[in-house]
Amino acid sequence: MKEQILYIHTGQEFLPISSKICKKDLQEILSDNFVPYIECFNKCGKAGICRLTDNLRDRKGDQKCGVVDNILDNFLNVTFDCFKKSSMEDKQKYLRALPG
Questions:
Q1: What dihedral do alpha carbons 56, 58, 64, 70 form, nearest 10°?
Q2: What pLDDT, in 10s, does the model give residues 37-66?
Q3: In the chain, N or C terminus with fewer CB closer than 10 Å?
Q4: Domain boundaries in the chain?
């Protein structure tokens, strides 16, 4: 049986993903495409106490917003089981509902 492909809109393009994607891989795609780089000290009032950016620095020292990353992770924790059990049409609707 041929693998079924879903598409997630990243804001710039439609990225093909497997309909059998695991939660970890989907979280990585969401983090890479939807979590913004941010200058915490200029844009976030919690910058001085936020521990959520510790693991989100890239090689240049830029950091992604840990709050947004945490929200996406919690969203997947709550909804991913339903996603796995859904029809192809419903899976595509789920992916369309994500920011992009």
A1: -20
A2: 776 656 666 666 666 666 666 656 667 777
A3: N
A4: 23-87
CB 56 within 8 A of CB 63: yes
Residues 100 and 34: their CA atoms lie apart, in Å, by 7
Q: Which regions of the chain are under pLDDT 50?
A: none
Q: Are 91 and 8 in contact (CB under 8 A)?
A: no
CA–CA gap between residue 14 and residue 69 (Å, rounded): 21
Strand locations in the chain (E): 5-9, 14-18
Helices 23-34 and 66-85: crossing angle, nearest 10°?
140
pTM of the full structure: 0.76
